[in-house]
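Researcher: Next sequence.
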Amino acid sequence: MTRIRKSSEINLRPLNNFVHPSDIAEDSFPNIPATHEISYQTRRILMTTLFDFASISFPDFTTLSRDEKWRLVSGSAVRVSILESSYRSSKIYPDDNRVFVSYTTTISPDSLDYYLSSTPLLVNIEEAKKELRKNLEQNAGRSKRAMRRIDPSDEEFLAMLALSFWNNSHESLCRMAAQNRAAVMRDLHVYYTTRGETGYATRIGELFCLLMDNEALGVNSELYFRRQTT
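Model: Next structure:
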């Protein structure tokens, strides 16, 4: 999933941000400030790769109908994107105000003019800048700080990602979602016990607080996200 997104996004870059293939290492490649235009395309890439993620990670996903798959993926994309952004930006940019917009692009209060340089002419740039700055400072920044404070391991983050993906209350998906969330929790318990940790209830509570915060941000962002992907 991450390799596909990395390769796809790098190939979307304008020539002035071209990266030679030999300069792209597995875990080291230059991230660039996002633009509105590129963000629209990277969101579509994320939606596509979420289908692969679900098919590989959860075999029962393949038994769903086309509409059910789309309902699950489209309903979780915002949450997954925000969760991943908070996690990766807290690791890669712990000491500044950048957050990830996609796998290889970032945004910060200092890059808002550049981000909005590709917006449609009818958009009120000053109003958009004001709202983006407010969101970065009050929402994305808070989520990043919380993620840094809790500092989940890679295994804990993957569990959070799966739980967030399956947080769907639609009638046709409830049973499968509950089964997969229960399986993720069992795996998380195994993870702690194999490490010799016994009093991990508090730790799980901290992770769920992060998820709840992420859910709140997802609700606030969903309308905007849907406007950009339809």
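Model: The first strand starts at residue 32 and ends at 33. The helical segments are 2-10, 36-57, 66-92, 112-116, 125-150, 154-165, 174-194, 201-229.
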